[in-house]
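Q: What residues go here?
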């Protein structure tokens, strides 16, 4: 059974696995939620939600974000960045099941922590032979830029 266990980004279990992610850990500012990914009560990964990047042309166009900084800021509160996702266990559909569970869980937790309704998500992938966005496409995310 897959579970998402909320933790602080200072939790040693989170930090250990975060340190093995291919993108260096430069901490997180703004709104944020962090989870351990548990499979049958064993930690197999981490996943986090955070405030979105301020300006990304393709994303801004996709969500029709306003150019006025005040309006943009208000709109961006409703977009969540999947800032880190790392699994260290291979199992068929584990990634897509975790990502779907993450979106449902974050919508609930984001509302209860920040009183903000989520209207969309963003993520960034550093393309390689191992990473090309298939997991996100399997969860019906739309690629809007490269």
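A:
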């Amino acid at each position: 059974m897959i579970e998402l266990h909320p933790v602080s980004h200072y939790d040693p279990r989170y930090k250990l696995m975060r340190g093995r992610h291919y993108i260096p850990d430069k901490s997180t500012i703004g709104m944020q939620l962090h989870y351990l990914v548990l499979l049958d009560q064993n930690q197999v990964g981490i996943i986090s939600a955070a405030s979105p990047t301020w300006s990304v042309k393709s994303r801004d166009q996709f969500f029709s974000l306003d150019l006025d900084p005040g309006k943009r800021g208000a709109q961006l509160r409703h977009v969540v960045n999947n800032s880190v996702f790392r699994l260290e266990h291979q199992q068929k559909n584990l990634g897509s099941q975790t990502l779907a569970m993450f979106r449902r869980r974050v919508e609930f937790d984001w509302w209860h922590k920040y009183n903000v309704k989520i209207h969309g998500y963003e993520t960034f992938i550093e393309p390689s032979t191992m990473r090309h966005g298939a997991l996100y496409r399997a969860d019906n995310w739309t690629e809007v830029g490269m």
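A: Context that may help when evaluating the design: The mean pLDDT is 90. DSSP finds five helices and five strands in the chain.
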